[in-house]
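>> Question from a student workshop board

For tomorrow's exercise we were told to take the sequence and the ligand below, predict the bound structure, and bring the output to class. My setup keeps failing. Could a helper post the expected result so I can at least see what it should look like? The ligand is 4'-deoxy-4'-aminopyridoxal-5'-phosphate.
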Amino acid sequence: MSSLEPSRRDTRLDSYIDQYADRTASMTVSAVRALFSVANRPEVVSLAGGMPNIADLPLKDLGASFDQLIQTKGIQAMQYGSGQGELFMREHIVDVMAEEAVHANADDVVITCGSQQALDLVTRIFVNPGDVVLCEAPSYVGALGTFNAYQADIHHVAMDEHGLIPSAIRDAVTALRAAGKHVKFLYTIPNFNNPTGITQPVERRKEILAVAQELSLLIVEDNPYGLLTIEGEPLPALRSMDPGVIYLGSFSKTFAPGFRIGWVLAPHAVRERLVIAQEAAVLSPPVFSQFAIANYLENFDWRAQIVNFREMYRARRDATLQGLADHMPPTATWTHPTGGFFVWLTLPEGLDSQALLARAVNERVAYVPGNAFYADGFGSRNMRLSYCFPTPERIYEGTRRLGKVIRDELEM
Ligand code: PMP
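>> Workshop helper replied:
Here is what the output should look like for this input. Compare the format with yours to find the bug.
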């Protein structure tokens, strides 16, 4: 990750240098963005980006249906709308959340520009500079970026193969509070964590909720991948077991990210502040997108489409795991996700994923180095491999190339 620091020091590079707010000092250029230019070259198998694979959406039928939408509701769909989001959209969202056993009232939902903006709004209303946000170790790079932008003090909590370790949450909160720190919330991705692919089993979810209740610790549950299960049925969300949890959802992975529609479900008092914050941020979330998504949910078999997505991602996950089993040295290890987009690989001791990246790109394969997912520089022996986008054949070839890079490095 390259930071903005050099330009902050040099007025020849940036004449606005004395004008920027302090918070920009902690804003960094994401490693993912910096990678996109190389990783997008056609000869490179990119296991780096996390773009959903939406090539199989029924574009022709969608086009006809959107045409109809413009003719019948175009004027309303192209107007400003409600800061909280349109009621019809919030009612649909209530139905979508019921798939994961979350039972909610449409009045407690706030529509956002993707769940990325939900993260921003939640942080905006809760976090003062220096407040602690607890995150999984490792955690979604985009969330770390948001927490940094609000000058949060990010503390990572250890995970095992079942996700967050409840006793580690208790130890962290106890120590931080004893040191006079204000711990604002715990951010977690219980399903198919980005970047590890790890899922919290139901028992673990209950233990995490019990510790949070004991500590009066607010939980922010980020769940964009929950319906994309590859094995078994979706698990009940944390929010389904505790209405005090703030829940973030999105249509980016279950439909398409370009509409930029996500949401927050929050306890009533919190919801009111979120709406005020949302009005200050964007007046109203994209009205046309809300009409388009509602139109999709009403006129297409979206549940069947999710089943198609699951099968498509299962083939890609299988190709990844097969490729890793065939090509990695015995001292490398990796997670076995049961859904979502990501595998987390741990390199043999002594290897560094960031140092290896240039060689990997030379061998025409890309990944995201593990340290992008930590606020504190850890993760140098890890890499995130995304299997969502390339074909299974390309993914398998990518793991072959990556295996060669790692084996060559071990022999040097
Ligand atoms: N949370 C997680 C864990 C994600 O992986 C992503 C996207 N990669 C987001 C939130 C943001 O997604 P969106 O804004 O498209 O809903």
